[in-house]
Amino acid sequence: MPPSYTDDQIVYAVRDGRITPAQLDRMAQGMIDLVNKTRAAMSVDNYRFDVDAHDEVAHQAAIESIVMLKNDDAILPLNAGPVANPSAMPQKIAVIGEFARTPRYQGGGSSHITPTKMTSFLDTLAERGIKADFAPGFTLDLEPADPALESEAVETAKNADVVLMFLGLPEAAESEGFDRDTLDMPAKQIALLEQVAAANQNVVVVLSNGSVVSVAPWAKNAKGILESWLLGQSGGPALADVIFGQVSPSGKLAQSIPLDINDDPSMTNWPGEEGHVDYGEGVFVGYRYYDTYGKAVDYPFGYGLSYATFEIADVTAAKTGANTATVTATVTNTSDVDAAETVQVYVVPGKADVARPKHELKGFTKVFLKAGESKTVTIDLDERAFAYWSEKYNDWHVEAGEYAIEVGVSSRDIADTVAVALDGDGKTQPLTEWSTYGEWEADPFGAKIVAAVAAAGEAGELPKLPDNAMMRMFLNSMPINSLPTLLGEGGKKIAQFMVDEYAKLSK
């Protein structure tokens, strides 16, 4: 069950059969188990946790979540003067956008929590002695623009060397309780960005949003773009660390950013009709769809820039079991900036009996490297990494054959591809007169029987099957009990021979 189901969606999912009673029981038991795990700590008299230590965990999590989408002319990191670089003249910075003062640090509705502390970006600047002029620019709602706020923001931008614009989705624009009907940010924010960019060409946009927003329509107005999502209680310090270069951004997109909402495969089924929505994409969700069908995207799955540069080399894949493998690669930081890179491993299936995506992410690891440093990383791929869910077997199934393994830094930035041959799990289904001739050929027992049919035909013991491309196409897709429609009484003899031989071999 997808973790994004809300309470009302669970009710509908149970009603529609997408969640079984057994699955619902497991969900309830999981919640009970979680409560029981916390019981010991909660029963300690006068128990107190370390607020500052917890805040530092939130700080580090936020740092690693920030994804740098764009950094033209190396506009980032900024120079805040003596705090970051004592030898450089500080830049005059303008901060525009209410999100900088009133961060949207969490989702809406039932996801609300009470933080132990809350540090905005403006709070962080004040704590660190970094000077910046601030203008809110807009209100955090879906109301029309305020001309006075816009005018103040533009004037503030005119007097700055660089502008940090904090844009995004207010809480009213997205929630677990309703579906968004657009990927666009509020029009008043885009209009303000255009006005600010006309007054100052050095603009960096910092986004606050729970799920992706369209970037292409306004990206020309920004030299830098940071996708910061909803960063939690320590988002302000995390953003300052990245923006002023204390750390290099290392986040990667967990969701493709499409050029248009209508490019998404769900749009053929959404928003549904008569109270019902079909999840018609099947396995072709997100990058699995975009990459399989060659659809252009704005930013691909797994994408994320850094202040450093990296190189991946010496990629190998070695079989470790019948259907398992291990992947190794050497990652080198080719810059003078300490930073982290995420090595991503995608599995490419060979010819399959079912529709499978072009490739799927099956492993990744983030490695921190000092300037010029190299490390070898290893990622193990278990049997599930190569499997698909088979309706026929009602189980996970690994087909025998060669699989390609791609190693890269996004789903569309692959450094190298290697191959590994797997044995398969050997699963078979009983063959019957309703099994197609092609299914008989693909089965270990069936293949022997098909060969026996051919030999008996050559010997004159059975009718000889026509051997041409057109007939082969018909044979492979038809049940063997349909052979009489092609071969008359001879087809009936062949089908009976095959069923009888299978009964002997499969005992």
TrEMBL record:
It holds the Pfam family Glyco_hydro_3_C. One of its GO terms (molecular function) is beta-glucosidase activity. GO terms for biological process: carbohydrate metabolic process. Residues 341-411 form the Fibronectin type III-like domain. It comes from the Bacteria. The keyword Hydrolase applies. The keyword Endoplasmic reticulum does not apply. Keywords: Hydrolase. Belongs to the glycosyl hydrolase 3 family. Catalyzes the hydrolysis of a non-reducing terminal alpha-L-arabinopyranosidic linkage in ginsenoside Rb2 (alpha-L-arabinopyranosyl-(1->6)-alpha-D-glucopyranosyl) to release alpha-D-glucopyranosyl (Rd). It is not able to hydrolyze alpha-L-arabinofuranosyl-(1->6)-alpha-D-glucopyranosyl (Rc). PANTHER family: BETA-GLUCOSIDASE (PTHR42715). Homotetramer. This is Exo-alpha-(1->6)-L-arabinopyranosidase. It comes from Bifidobacterium longum subsp. longum.
